[in-house]
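Our consortium's second objective concerns turning raw sequence data into structural hypotheses that experimental partners can test. To show how far this objective has progressed, the report includes one record in full. It was chosen at random from the queue rather than selected for favorable results. The single chain below, 726 residues long, was entered without modification.
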Amino acid sequence: SCRRHGAMVSRLMLREQQMFGGPLPITTLIPGSGPGTTFDDTRAPEPMVTVPDGPEHGWKRGLTLPRYVLNTSAPPRRADPVNRYFPRSDDERAPLLPELFMPGFPKCSTTWLYSCMSEVWSPDSAGIGCGKKPDGWGADRCGKRYLLVSLSTNAKGETRPRKETFFFGGTGVKYWDGDFLEMHGPDPRSGSKADAPPLWLWQETAKRLRAQARRELEPKRLGHRPSRQDLHLATSRAVRHHIQNLDELCGGSSDRENVAARPSSRACEYVAAVSHNGSAGGGGGGGAAAEGEAAGAVARARAEMLESARSHCAARLGEEARCSAVGTGMLRHVAAIPGGGPNGCSHPGCHRIAKGLPGSWQPVCQWLPELDAKLNLTDAHCIRSITPWVSSRELNLSLVDFTPNYLCDAKAMQRIHFSSLDPSRPRFIVVMRDPVMRAFSEWSMFALAWNWDAERNFTSAMEGKLSALRRCNETLFDQPLLLETLPTEELAEYVQSCYRQGRAMMYPQLSMYAPCILHALRYFRREQFLFLRYEDLMKMSAEAIVRLVGHFSGLHLDAELVAQAVEGGKCQPSHREHSAPPPGSNSSRGPVKGRPMSFSDTSPDAADYLADTGTHLERFFDPYNQMLVRAIGTPFRWRRRDHRKRFLNATEKEAARVALEQRDAQKAENKRKRKAKLREQVKANNEWAKKQKLRRQASGRKASGRRALRAAMAEARAEGGGKLKA
């Protein structure tokens, strides 16, 4: 899906160049001279302060923190501990939706912060201490609030956590369909897994299958010590059984035309139930228990969701129950799977692939040779996305979605708002980096490291993006401060169109933080956001980061968890400006394992690009930085040194160019090998499918001949009345 997104953006850029000609020079796009006024090396950013080490200071005692986060508030305690989607009652099992987001911005250490939080707050971490088995992760046995992500699986059923789902938006690839079927997926506790723990699928697949194989091979059952061959066969049976479980979750009905048997939309089910009962009461838990103003906000949000669901279901004309439209679901002309059963209806959160149908394979769901060679399978399901389905009190967790492109997709923020029964529930962590450096880092990643962008000159790339932004709305390009006065609908239209859904490779747009934040604050309260400067985050200790994030998000926080996080090392930025904790701080350093992903040193001409283009971009970003300060009430400032690099001498530049060329050549060779391997696999599977077809035809002819012979014998008996001789 990422490669599809990159190719789509590249095609749009090429089409624009063909329609409007080449980009304008940067001196024309950004008139004037001199540096930007909001980038000043003589004025230090908001200082870091050390909080006295006293119990009256609570979570921040003894920490060195940015001054602007000292008044960060914790989320209120809620009657319903989990964010369920359209629950009709407290006892009904409903899918979970995310409630903790990191919606911006790319290249601001979102991946690093996700890795830190995953290690600290996963249910099986040392700090949470709820054990390695999912039967210990329920609210009855694990009272500590932890973090969870949605999952996807490959064709072997191996699970992969989804840090970025892009489900609400942030991409040109459409995942949103209004009813969340693609996001929450099928109920993990259905079919033969009805009695399993709620989070059985979230246990590491390899560990779960090994445990299953060992249980099968217990000596008291076999009567002898299991051999290596016994273990191999038992593991293969466990894998096959696991794949069959996932097929059962995803399979739905073999009859594609049977609407009643298809996976149904909870939104439309909720509308039907409310229409029948005449009330939108029931589920929500937190909404039922809320009082005063909060109760009114919950009621209004529920009414908006209900109206949105009614429109959605009416538009589908009673066909809200849907089948998957990917994998074999794209091949509706294929009635049967080669070597398998009918091409039926799969859940929209899954896709089914088949060995003999290479057209059903997806980049994230490839056919694996061991499926037929070792497991004797001809088709399998991949789960695109799945979340837990639980009643109100079964779990105590926060589901997260750290897609960093949501904030600059106006529709994504609207969808997050309208999908929550309580709009005050979602929490957002937003990290902002020096705008010039953020744009340069993103260009370095897509143009030099990943080769998505063909423009390998930073100045030319920025000229192209700024020219497109100017064409989008020339008035607001020349007078950006007018953005503060726009009504919500017009501001949303500007963000949606000129930021192109916040998608990748919008280098200057995604560094124009203010319009995206202005729009988001029209839907959510200021206290629901934790705004951080990237440069401040990189100065903080692991203890400070864990305590701040835990306090803001409402995740479990105690001294033991913090100690485990510091010892683990993933929450310690690797390029801290100080070699030791500041005086007066009681935080320990801990090992450094969590270096944020960096691409800004990839180009040998990085220092030259930033020196030549940086001053122009400072002037361009000035009005947006001023709007940002007014929007969030925090004096965020950056220094010129934040987007400067050391100039390389001729020898260093030549060595860097050679290394970059070698890296590009290796990538091209790897790509060629992958394509050649895929072609061979497709060819072999197509030949196998043809053989299966010929076998079925031959079998059909034999069956037809046998039927004809039996009919002739019966006719002869009827005519002769005697025994038919050979």
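The partners drew two points from this record. Confidence is low (pLDDT under 50) at residues 280-291, 576-592. The two ends are 65 Å apart (CA to CA). Both points have been shared with the crystallography group to help prioritize constructs.
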